[in-house]
Fold this sequence. Notes:
By secondary structure, the protein is of the alpha/beta class. The chain has two domains: 18-131, Glutathione S-transferase Yfyf (Class Pi), Chain A, domain 2, CATH 1.20.1050; 139-291, Rossmann fold (3-Layer(aba) Sandwich). It is 38% helix and 9% strand. The protein has helices at 24-27, 32-44, 63-66, 68-85, 94-106, 110-115, 129-134, 175-182, 206-222, 233-241, 261-268, 286-291; strands at 18-21, 48-51, 89-91, 126-128, 150-153, 186-187, 227-230, 258-260. It has a four-stranded parallel β-sheet, sandwiched between helices. The protein is globular.
Amino acid sequence: MKQEARAPxxxxxxxxxxxxxxxxxxxxxxxREYDISARLCCESLGIELRELADWTxxxxxxxxxxxxxxxxxxxxxxxxxxxxxxxxxxTACAMCFSRLKIAAHETADMxxxxxxxxxxxxxxxxxxxxxxxxxxxxxxxxxxGLAGLKVACFYGxxxxxxxxxxxxxxxxxQVMDRLMRTIGAEPMPWAFKTECCGAGLxxxxxxxxxxxxxxxxxxAAAVGADCVAxxxxxxxxxxxMHQAGMGGKHGGEVRVPVVYFTQLLGLSLGFSPYELHxxxxxxxxxxxxxxxxxx
Length: 295
């Protein structure tokens, strides 16, 4: 049943409310539900996202492994466009965030700036969407709390490493946990929240992806999580799509729904599971949500 979504409110947070938005390649293709849910949440919270005109791929996840020039030049073009727009640059993709943030960090050096094709002008702040929402938690009032939902918050590698561009502690980050508590869910304490899921290896070495992802999901299941919340389309793909092949030699089957943090936030703001495309995942989260009266 479609629920009435929370109407866009007055602009909140007292600070920046307009951002240049870099969706990145995955959110325009295999992770469209992440892009859709992010936009719905931001509109409801009074956060204006202005998609960068003529944005290009940031180079994730292979450019930095093949060329120092491409590693800076590709995100450098988008940083230049953001500086021209004059707003802080926000992205929801952890891979894009890492490449953009590292490029912004490296272009402080004039030699690298030239290498990147003269990324002129002031480099605007680069933020992950979690940071933007975290700055507004004091004024975030859920339309529908997620009471009873136990969530394993999974940060993966790229939001918390390397230290120079991290958004939180590398061992026990809390930014997503704080959001889950604010919307009424229970973030579960667990030891695998910043482990690697296998990143960009699902085609070349699916065995590695399944082994690493299986350990993460077993840990989430062991602490009683109803679902795993992620902020990265690569992490989502590895944890969600490969569960069917994780049994046998990896130590038994595990079925844990994997969702984007924006989808859970969207539920709390009054959007229906279908508006948030929660029915698009390989492991269906709707039964777990229905058991809590949330779908």
